[in-house]
Amino acid sequence: METLTPRPTASSRRDENRADLRVTTDTSNSEGAVGSDDTVPDRIAEQFENIKQTRRRRALGWLGLIAFLAFTTLQAFAATELLNPDARLETFRESLTGFFPITDYFGVIPFLDVGRYLEFISQGNLLYDPEIGGLLFQFPPNPADIYAFFFQELGIFQIFGEAGITLAMGFVGTILGFPFALVFGTLGSERVTPFPFNFIFRGTMSFIRAVPAIVWTLIFIPFLGLGPSSAAIAIAFDTIGNLGRLFVDELEEIEDGPIEAMRTTGASKPQIVFFGMLSQVRTAFIAWTLYIFEINVRIGVTVGVIGAGGLGYVLASQQNLLRFTNMMATLLAIFLLIISVELFSQRLRSRLRSDEVEMSIWELITGFPRRMAESALK
Predict the structure, then answer these.
(1) In 3-state terms, what secondary structure has residue 111?
(2) Chain-wide mean pLDDT for the chain?
(3) DSSP tag of 140
(4) H or E element: which one contains 195?
(5) Distances (CA, A) of 22 to 9, 12, 18, 28, 110
(6) Across 104-113, average pLDDT
(7) Where is the chain membrane-spanning (predicted)?
(8) What are phi and psi for residue 141, nearest 5 degrees?
(9) What is the per-residue pLDDT for 253?
(10) Contact 267, 275 (CB under 8 A)
(11) How many CB atoms lie within 10 A of CB 376?
């Protein structure tokens, strides 16, 4: 008796095909997983080896750079004769006693003799001229002497003695150089003057900066003589180059919104420059001018060394006489002058910033220890 096999229906055939497809998919996935398990460790090892090679190359590069800097530094020391056996540390220590006189108090305690510094500062009128100051500081006040102080002796700067001459050179150089720096800096900006014409002003400022202020002083000596006048004009020239370049950089960073708004209203080119450009950088221009004034006072000390007057001239003369104690006293007077100018300039610049708390010069000086302690505890 034959056994009858049932004919597969369409639905059963679809189920068989689905089962075969699942088996095939599972097999392929398992084979792919096995293959990926074999390749992933190789890729990780290759990447790790690449990282190690990169670090080795960087380490070799840094070692080469350090070796080159060490070799170059050694060559520079040799060129500056610091490797000369005559330049010994013992000689340097012995020479320090000329700059820093030591006095033994009670015959036992060594201490710096500051009195010798103060004596020379007073005798040389480095920070105060009593002859000029006597017209102002007297009791009871004499109106005739006060009038002579301000309008005949013109002693506002002269009352500070040699320091006043140095301060006046830096101040006059800043005042004379500022308007030219403003014109050259504005016309040197590509926003105001198109490209190749603005380079005329940029090139002029670059030429002025290429010549140091002390060389400009030597140039003006045949015209004005060796003194503060030639130094003040030289500082003014130096101000044109340095301050003008800072003005150009500020004008290159201004926003275009106010400028485009003024153009749409039909404003002329001068109106756009004055009210659209310069109005945005007014505060920055004042701050940079005060900063250049600080630099010009330092330049006044430098040009004074060649005989232009002021503290620099006193410093050079005492050095030529090998009076190192007096030389150190002059350096102390220079430090007091520079730090006073910086404090004054800093107070003015801080008042230009709306986000900084205003503080008087007296508060700045008396509150310095407290601010130092607060900064150290942060």
Answers:
(1) strand
(2) 82
(3) S
(4) helix 195-210
(5) 20, 15, 6, 10, 99
(6) 75
(7) 59-78, 163-187, 199-221, 272-292, 299-316, 322-344
(8) -60, 140
(9) 83
(10) yes
(11) 7
Of 365, 356, 336, 359, nearest to 347 by C-alpha is 359
| Residues 6 or more apart whose Cβ sits within 8 Å of residue 279 | 258
The whole-angstrom separation of Cα 135 and Cα 143 is 9
Q: What is the CATH code of the structural domain delimited by 160-377?
A: 1.10.3720.10
Cβ atoms of 184 and 310 closer than 8 Å: no
Backbone phi, psi, residue 189, to 5°: -80, 140
Token pair of 1, please?
């008796």
Instruction: Compare 19 and 289 and report the one with higher pLDDT.
Output: 289
Q: How far apart are CA 13 and CA 21, in angstroms?
A: 12
**Residue 288, token pair as written in the block:** 């940079």
Lookup result for tokens 């150290």: 376
Report the number of secondary-structure helices (H) and strands (E) in the chain: 17, 2
Cα 160 to Cα 129: distance, rounded to the nearest angstrom:
6
Model-level pTM?
0.73
What residue type is 370 in one-letter code?
Answer: R
- Per the listing, tokens 């030591």 go with 102
The structural domains of the chain, with segments of one domain joined by +, span: 90-123, 160-377
Please say whether the beta carbons of 136 and 155 come within 8 A: yes
Rounded to 10 deg, the angle between the 311-320 and 161-187 helix axes is 120
